[in-house]
Design brief:
- The structure holds 2 protein chains of 2 kinds.
- Chain A contains 14 helices and 4 strands.
- The two termini of chain A are about 15 Å apart.
- In chain B, helix 9 links the parallel strand 7 and strand 8.
- In chain B, helix 2 packs across helix 11, helix 2 packs across helix 12 and helix 3 runs parallel beside helix 4.
- Chain B is globular and about 65 Å long.
- Classes of the chains: A mainly alpha, B alpha/beta.
- Chains A and B meet through helix 2, helix 3, helix 6, strand 4 and helix 12 of A and helix 1, strand 2, helix 3, helix 4 and helix 6 of B.
Chain lengths: ~350, ~425
């Protein structure tokens, strides 16, 4: 009824190629951005912003990075957390060596460091595929985590073995460290995530994204069509690690404030992989939905007994959270194996033809 | 996107509903981990902490006539969840937090001064936070890991007949290859140079905790005269089992204060003789434990398994809660207020002085030694003793061993200074000081 493109004519090629060709989609996006930029900071409590929204955005960004690799290019990676770690440690090193430079510059720059490392570990992807590549990236995960523990230079030989984030300011407002308010940190993360999502969306809808998808669907056919496999795959690794790296830097600088190497363990890689699979392979919206399901849902479940006034022990709540979240993951995967993004697409399609489905 | 919106809407309403708490109580959140890979140790600690505080509520009606609002938040020993817990309890005005994980403590340290919530990280966390002048909001009594190392070395020296007899000995150090285990390395290095013993290092990576065959193969080759362990979680039972398998003399295997009875029991009879440091009793024969049984356990208000009451980590939880309670009581005494807040409790902890007489009042005579904190010293550097595993429980076998404070202090000072420099601009101490020395 409301969601119908009848009467929306496209008169230019640009309009036809737009990412959101339907007006209602654009309105929806505007509402979401309005909510994210105005409503949430205005109405949300500190807990919502610091413990729900910032982690959600950071994880969604990392999931986008992984989605570029798995969903769009079909290269399975189990090293995302390690690449996030590279970003975090690079940002830490850069910002302690050159404290004069704005920390935001280093957050973005650390993405390039992560990118370079990702390319190195992506090299085997030309020769090995599928599960074998997953094992090769697992090597990256273990090797890089070993570096974070073992190479004292990376954490400035801190006796605690962790990286700690000193205070930095932007236009005189503290953006990192204890003085930074959650709202400031939220805005920084939000702006970076929105810009990078917009960039990713352009990337995957353009020539590069199409070449990735061709490689994903059948790499020999893609090669015959003139796509050079090595640059295409390496670029996917580079872009994916860039996103993971920036997400890692944001995670330590904007969310945690200090991190031990354990923050980038294999578990984190798996969680990101689950987000991508449950959210939807090859979908940017899916990355957000997946991050929401895996990160936000348990928080809501944890608060439910309290909000309903049912006294349940903290540990019991935690067990319940695991059970409920697990059951929901199963439910969504059974209902739609292609992830939440596919559910969303189906819902849109149904709405479009409603009330006369054909 | 629709789903996202619904989720966000739910989260918003929930976050608005959550902070509703009566103000006529002192809010004490307990970060616990009864789930996850470290639940084995975490459950006992959580029960001990929880039961002592509920006992105060049941028996005395709280502290100074004010009930304690105790709330557990499950961290699963996960830093991210711990921070979530912190954000969740912050609006309710906690008087202090006990992170019970070094990973959670580190990000909270800079926040403490800003949020005015003191951190009590009992014998874990950042060792340098013992320096009250740099870290007015962080407390880590009764010992740092460096104190622990110095006491183990002193114990070994006592076995050999003096510190000078350490010359030419081989001492192996088996440690968790993370910040915690690596922290004592420079100190051990310094001690080995001073006393002329040879150190052998056996790092155990966190993901390889349950597979230490490589390390113990090296132990078999090197044959160190003594083994020191800084382990955690599954690393400890594995190490004891491997030591038994390697036929390493268990009497010469000494650990820092974290192993439980179960960690040693796993290796069966072979584990007899395994030693750990401790600063409190490992039995339940004290008036304080009897009161907990009477007022909490028998009323069915405890989650603790009956046989775990009075074990090492349960008692450690009790000790931790004793510090919490004494900190609050002190704060009430200093400020004259009944309902104290984080700033008051910071002062309360800073002037903590639990002497022998007070311990007796608490029903803890012989349970542990006295402790006194000052503005400069947030640790206390208390002596510990060595306890030996007899197949069922730990038995105290030595008298109190004093740490080498003269060697530890310069390291702590240097570290605190380095921390403040690395985290510049680190705030200068402006907080009031009630006890100068």
């Amino acid at each position: 009824m409301f969601y119908r493109e009848v009467g929306q004519f496209k008169t230019t090629y640009a309009a036809d190629q737009a990412i959101f060709p339907i007006r209602q989609d654009r309105i929806g996006l505007a509402i979401i951005l309005f909510a994210a930029f105005v409503l949430i900071p205005l109405l949300g409590g500190e807990f919502l912003i610091a413990s729900v929204m910032i982690p959600f955005l950071v994880l969604a960004l990392a999931a986008i990075g992984l989605n570029v690799l798995i969903g769009y290019t079909g290269l399975i990676s189990l090293g995302t957390a390690a690449f996030m770690g590279v970003g975090a440690y690079a940002c830490y090193k850069l910002s302690t060596i050159f404290p004069q430079v704005n920390v935001l510059v280093w957050i973005v720059a650390s993405g390039f460091v992560s990118s370079a490392v990702g390319v190195v570990f992506g090299l085997p992807s030309l020769r090995i595929k599928g599960f074998y590549l997953a094992i090769a990236t697992l090597a990256a995960q273990f090797f890089l985590q070993w570096c974070f523990v073992r190479i004292g230079w990376l954490y400035n030989h801190n006796p605690s073995g962790a990286i700690e984030v000193p205070g930095h300011t932007l236009f005189g407002i503290p953006v990192t460290g204890p003085q930074a308010t959650p709202i400031t940190r939220y805005y920084v993360v939000l702006v970076i995530v929105v810009v990078m999502t917009w960039f990713a969306s352009n990337l995957v809808h353009g020539r590069i994204g199409r070449s990735w998808m061709a490689v994903r669907d059948m790499d020999i056919a893609a090669q015959l069509m003139g796509i050079k496999l090595l640059p295409a795959k390496l670029l996917a690794f580079a872009v994916s690690s860039f996103y993971a790296g920036v997400a890692g830097a944001l995670m330590v600088f904007m969310w945690l404030g200090a991190a031990e190497p354990e923050a980038f363990n294999i578990n984190q890689s798996f969680i990101l992989l689950f987000m991508v699979i449950i959210g939807g392979l090859g979908s940017l919206i899916g990355s957000f939905l997946g991050a929401a399901l895996i990160h936000v849902l348990p928080i809501i479940v944890r608060f439910l007994p309290d909000a309903l006034g049912v006294p349940v022990g903290a540990a019991t709540v935690e067990h319940l959270t695991f059970v409920i979240t697990g059951a929901l993951i199963l439910f969504f995967l059974v209902v739609e194996p292609h992830g939440l993004a596919q559910l969303w697409r189906i819902a849109k399609q149904k709405l479009r033809v409603w009330p006369f489905p054909y | 996107m629709k789903l996202k919106r619904i989720v966000l809407a739910c989260a918003t309403t929930l976050s608005l509903v959550a902070p509703a708490l009566a103000q006529e109580s002192v809010f004490v959140p307990l970060f616990t981990y009864r789930t996850g890979p470290f639940a084995g140790s975490g459950t006992s600690i959580a029960d001990g902490m929880h039961d002592y505080l509920s006992m105060l509520n049941e028996r005395d009606g709280g502290i100074g006539g004010v009930k304690l609002a105790i709330e557990e938040c499950e961290t699963g020993y996960d830093t991210k969840k711990g921070l979530e817990c912190y954000e969740a309890v912050k609006p309710k005005g906690p008087v202090m937090v006990n992170p019970w994980s070094t990973g959670i403590t580190l990000p909270l340290i800079p926040k403490a001064a800003v949020d005015k919530i003191p951190i009590l990280s009992m014998a874990y966390g950042l060792s340098a936070s013992a320096m009250g002048e740099t870290f007015p909001w962080v407390f880590n009594p009764p010992d740092t890991y460096w104190d622990g190392m110095s006491m183990i070395i002193k114990y070994i020296a006592a076995q050999e007949g003096g510190l000078e007899k350490l010359k030419g000995k081989k001492i192996g150090y088996l440690y968790l290859d993370a910040g915690y285990g690596k922290e004592p390395l420079p100190f051990l290095d310094q001690l080995s140079k001073t006393y002329g013993f040879e150190q052998k290092l056996y790092p155990v990576p966190a993901q390889e905790m349950q597979n230490q065959s490589a390390q113990w193969l090296n132990v078999r080759r090197d044959r160190p005269d003594y083994m020191i362990m800084y382990g955690w979680g599954a690393m400890q039972p594995t190490a004891v089992k491997e030591a038994a398998k390697t036929n390493y003399p268990m009497e010469k295997f000494i650990s820092i204060w974290w192993p439980t009875e179960d960690d040693a029991k796993g290796a069966g009879k072979e584990a007899v003789g395994f030693k750990t440091l401790n600063w409190h009793a490992a039995t339940g024969d004290f008036p304080v434990i009897a009161d907990i049984r009477k007022h909490v356990v028998d009323k069915g208000k405890s989650l603790a398994a009956k046989d775990k009451i009075g074990t090492v980590l349960y008692n450690r939880g009790v000790y931790n809660s004793m510090l919490i309670a004494e900190g609050i009581r002190n704060a009430q005494k200093i400020t004259g207020k009944k309902v104290v807040n984080g700033e008051d409790v910071r002062r309360g902890l800073e002037s903590l002085n639990v002497d022998a007489a007070r311990l007796k009042e608490l029903g803890m005579e012989g349970f542990t030694g006295p402790i006194k904190l000052t503005c400069a010293d947030h640790n206390g550097h208390r002596p510990t003793f060595v306890q030996r595993f007899d197949g069922e429980k730990y038995v105290k076998i030595t008298d109190w061993i004093e740490p080498m404070t003269d060697k530890v202090m310069p390291l702590l000072e240097a570290d605190a200074k380095a921390y403040a420099e690395k985290n510049a601009p680190w705030p200068k101490r402006t907080e009031v000081c009630d006890v100068k020395s």
